[in-house]
TrEMBL record:
Keywords: Cell outer membrane, Membrane, Signal, Transmembrane, Transmembrane beta strand. It comes from Hymenobacter psychrotolerans DSM 18569. Belongs to the OmpP1/FadL family. It comes from the Bacteria. Its main location: membrane. GO terms for molecular function: long-chain fatty acid transporting porin activity. It is found in: Cell outer membrane. It is a multi-pass membrane protein. GO terms for cellular component: cell outer membrane. This is Long-chain fatty acid transport protein.
Length: 404
């Protein structure tokens, strides 16, 4: 699947790139690079390359209440995901490809009786990006590419209505929608051993116009404010990402990669549900733009075995005063390991694992900020990710485990 990054971004989007810590903008040994830099597939050969895989991410947070001193842990709810990539050269200078992956999402489930149940009990967002891509080889060293993005997402949030004594009084919001965007990139080689990549993926707005709000256990006197069922609409603002990467073959068997990413999380200002009965449920977010730094290394141990390792630092976009229990994010420092094994000359098995840990975050309730749903206390977060995939080249043979 994919490793969690700052905010609710999930990436990288393949088992190989997971092992590299996500440093992939200038990495051309995996066609999954078309999601990060569509220009990089412009130098493909004429074979049809296919990569498919998946598994899951487990994001685990704990909370200690300031007043209660009671510790609560999230329920373990791994979020499964998967990816599919295919690409080939179709003309002397033109390559095309298709990617299907899940770049944004989270899943948070707290125990039903925890002290923040009126803030959130369950929160989930899942997205799918479908990106047809075309790339053009300018010359032997440079290529450019662009992809059209169709995005689909679905949202689910539930919480208790804490103003009532009945703990079974609940509010549930469910909706789905789609949006569109684009992805452009440039790939270049300045020497036999050095390459670089630059890419920009545009923001996407998921318009959810068919949402459904369900209230249960509400006293009859408040049925007008909290109807049993009502439609709602909302927009989910997914950010743009600017990426710059380098890849350096330091020795015959060792490749080192580096990535810098800037993500426009400031688009995610609030999460608002506009109900059919003219009421509005507002939750402030006020995210900030955030940076990430990634370094990866790939070592060809034998003609059939390639080993990978990576380090990453993801800056959180969540301000201290806007920490919420649905996604108590933090600055994450992570490490990853991976390998590729050539089962056959044209068939590779890819595996990767990463672990990230965030620092302690203190949430404080400010009664002057009514739009912020929070509870006073301290969060700690850790993320485990595992991925397994296979890569196959039709019509020819890959000469070593590091090639498609």
């Amino acid at each position: 699947m994919s490793a969690a990054a700052g905010g609710f971004q999930s990436g990288p989007q393949s088992a190989r790139l997971l092992g590299l810590g996500g440093a992939s903008t200038a990495y051309t040994r995996d066609i999954a690079v078309m999601y990060y830099n569509p220009g990089a597939i412009g130098l493909l050969d004429s074979l049809l390359h296919v990569s498919v895989g998946g598994m899951g991410t487990a994001r685990m947070s704990s909370f200690v209440g300031t007043d209660s001193r009671r510790q609560t842990r999230q329920e373990l709810q791994p979020q499964p995901s998967g990816y599919f990539y295919a690409a080939s050269r179709v003309a002397p200078k033109v390559s095309v490809g298709l990617s299907i992956n899940q770049p944004f999402g989270y899943k948070t489930v707290w125990p039903g009786d925890w002290e923040g149940r009126s803030v959130v009990q369950e929160a989930r967002l899942a997205t799918v990006y479908v990106q047809p891509t075309v790339a053009y080889q300018i010359n032997d060293n440079f290529s450019v590419g662009a992809g059209f993005i169709y995005a689909y997402g679905d949202l689910r949030q539930s919480r208790a209505l804490g103003q009532y004594d009945n703990r079974s009084t609940q509010a549930l919001f469910e909706g789905s929608g789609n949006g569109y965007g684009a992805n452009i990139g440039l790939y270049g080689r300045t020497a036999d051993n050095l390459s670089f990549g630059i890419s920009f993926r545009t923001p996407v707005t998921l318009k959810m116009d068919n949402g459904k709000a369900t209230y249960s256990g509400v006293p009859a006197i408040d049925a007008g404010r909290f109807p049993t069922s009502a439609g709602f609409r909302t927009d989910i603002e997914l950010p743009s990402t600017l990426s710059v990467g380098l890849a350096d073959r330091m020795t015959k068997n060792l490749l080192v990669t580096f990535d810098f990413n800037l993500t426009s999380w400031s688009r995610y200002d609030s999460l608002n549900f506009e109900l059919d009965n003219a009421s509005r449920v507002t939750s402030g977010r006020r995210y900030e733009d955030a940076m990430a730094f990634r370094v990866g290394a790939e070592y060809t141990a034998t003609p059939t075995l390639t080993l990978r390792a990576g380090l990453s630092y993801d800056e959180t976009p969540v301000r201290d005063e806007y920490i919420t229990a649905d996604l108590p994010d933090a600055n994450l420092i992570g490490g990853s390991l991976g390998l590729s094994l050539a089962i056959k000359p044209n068939l590779l098995l890819d595996m990767g694992y990463s672990y990230s840990r965030g620092g302690e975050r203190r949430a404080r309730v400010n009664i002057a900020r009514e739009a912020i749903s929070s509870i006073d206390g301290t969060y700690r977060t850790a993320v485990h990710t595992a991925a397994v995939g296979v890569s196959y080249s039709f019509g020819g043979r890959a000469s070593r485990a590091t090639q498609q």
